[in-house]
Amino acid sequence: MKERTEIEIAGYRFKDEALLENALTHSSYLHEHVDEAARDFERLEFLGDAVVDLVVGEELFRRFPDATEGELTALRATLVSSAALAEVGRRLGLPERARLGRGEEDTGGRARVGLAASLYESVVGAIYMESGLDEASALVRRTMGDAIAATVTAPRKSPKTLLQEWAQAGHHPLPIYRTLDVSGPEHRRDFVVQVEVAGNVAQGSGPSKRVAEEAAAAKLMEVVTQ
């Protein structure tokens, strides 16, 4: 019988080695090792994604008491983007520990941004499954605390500004905003605005055109930074 060993990641010690093994297993590995009973990390990644969103959202909610929903959404989108989470995953050495298939390995899969980000979320999901939300939240705060703290001292930018900067950084045309609907009496108007950039579209609503545009930009930031 294989002896179980405890393995530590970022201060958390796994008791179930098989669970951690699943969190570090890419689907390409299982395609080439069909006799193994292990699962790939995708289900744990799904769970970890929700935990990371919750913890980062709560931290921003506490640290920015005057921020609007749109501003909080845009800040969170930046912090939980694939690029940001990949940086955390690489810092923890997760890509080096991943189990990849030979084909994925040979085509540079270990260096991909998406892999490092997915591994980080899957490890968070595994900790949640093994020890619950408190332990998973603690790991997120330990590993993302510096990035979250940096948002407090950095000048706060509106979702529209962040979306425009994202478009410019990717050499895309600037976002286009269109008012789709205006309803309600004069003193209680509701605006619905659509924003489009680089083939991505989102809608937002609010009591003014400006607020609706910010809401739409915040939603689109969540899409383009995943």
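^ that was protein a. below is b, sequence first then the tokens
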Amino acid sequence: MNERPQPGGNAPANPADAVLQGEVEVVTFHNTETLYSVLRVAPEEGYDDPQASTLWRSTRVTAVGLADQPSPGQRLKLSGRWISHRSHGRQFVFESLEPLPPLGADGAVRYLASDAFEGIGETLARRIVDKLGPNAIDVIYREPERLTGVVGLRGAVRESLVESVRAEYERHKLNTFLRSVGLGPRMANAVVRKLGAEAEASIRADPFRLAGLVRGIGFQTAD
């Protein structure tokens, strides 16, 4: 088994409040249990590695950390620090991440054509964006009926797309809530697995339900 880039055992090169913003191009590794992920990210202008050459921008950098369901085409804002790993070189170790809307029409096409949406290839994704505009994901969530008439978009695929977009929005909303009450990605994922889509309502109704539900969350944390 190939060695995966791991945080730790390195000399930090920057403060822990650095930000990397860009689009995921490759998910090199993702563990569904621990959420540990290795991503290849195309940084947006202004979010380059501070040690990179000023003449040549990095077109793709390695980012490692905990991510729930990373996929190529996602646009993310990662907070963490740049390090120089002894074996794997420069990489960004992120401690938190925030999903962002795709950037422009091309970004929306890449996201819709990714594995996150079954049955939508690049050609169909382009047709959807041409019809709905660069904010296609938001339009699908709020006005799914506007997908009617997209050439080649069969009914079953359309319904699956709408369900996937809605699930993505709800998952982001739930994870935002769980982070706001102090749960990290791993604990938040464990809570979602235990309580499902009703996690937020359940926790708001009885915060102490968290105690004993997930290993590592006691009454003090729930309080």
